[in-house]
């Protein structure tokens, strides 16, 4: 059984909300889970069809997987997942998508006393995860005080689902995608400031940020009709080039048939992989 409830974290838009999911699980599953997962949807920063409900089906698959892997134990314990919504372009532009998600994470931290999380993002939701990790640099670039978003939970693990990582590389491969990138950013200069990989940064600062993570999980569907393997391959290579510990990526880069681009975040295969990853945290 899954219980859910909607919460607001802002007053500027009806999209400044998040959904809390409570799942009943066995005590052994509860003991294996260190951190709740916060899901961030994609949609090219602009598609109103993508929202906090995107992960509803995936969470139900996860619930069923927990039931199977829990060996029919009594489901007497509870765990929480959160699905985050944020304002879209052209109503807002970068870095407003990021600051919305940071406000949401602050709300989750304060309301539910959450100190550590795993972030899971699809498509531009993956881009947002890189920006959350690199927030100090980005907020400073735009003169936004980081203090207003504290307390934030510690980001312990990340899961990228058919993500966009290097926006400049994306536009070189798919020039027509400038139609939505141009709505999300003010110009090419701002696209380069999207995140470190987009700007070509290869520094100790970048390595330090990603080495704080326990694990970096990267999934990409072989049937994705909107993104080729170039994005995940370049991201993995960039992580290794900047000096990220290979152990954080070991066994965490999966290419499989998870469906088309907008089917990945509803895939039962993805749910099984996430559950296996959650349970493996005790190993």
From TrEMBL:
Alphabetical keyword list: Hydrolase, Tryptophan catabolism
Function in brief: Catalyzes the hydrolysis of N-formyl-L-kynurenine to L-kynurenine, the second step in the kynurenine pathway of tryptophan degradation. Kynurenine may be further oxidized to nicotinic acid, NAD(H) and NADP(H). Required for elimination of toxic metabolites.
InterPro entries: AB_hydrolase_3, AB_hydrolase_fold, GDXG_lipolytic_enzyme, KFase_ver/fungi-typ
Stated family: Belongs to the kynurenine formamidase family.
Source taxon at top rank: Eukaryota
GO biological process: 'de novo' NAD+ biosynthetic process from L-tryptophan; L-tryptophan catabolic process to kynurenine
Domain-level remarks: The main chain amide nitrogen atoms of the second glycine and its adjacent residue in the HGGXW motif define the oxyanion hole, and stabilize the oxyanion that forms during the nucleophilic attack by the catalytic serine during substrate cleavage.
Reactions the enzyme catalyzes: N-formyl-L-kynurenine + H2O = L-kynurenine + formate + H(+)
Motif (HGGXW): 41-45
Coiled coil: none
E.C. designation(s): 3.5.1.9
Record GO terms (molecular function): arylformamidase activity
Gene3D superfamilies, A to Z: alpha/beta hydrolase
Name this polypeptide is given: Kynurenine formamidase
Subunit structure: Homodimer.
Pathway assigned in UniProt: Amino-acid degradation; L-tryptophan degradation via kynurenine pathway; L-kynurenine from L-tryptophan: step 2/2
Record-annotated active site: 123, 224, 261
Protein source organism: Dekkera bruxellensis (Brettanomyces custersii)
Ranges of residues in domain Alpha/beta hydrolase fold-3: 74-135
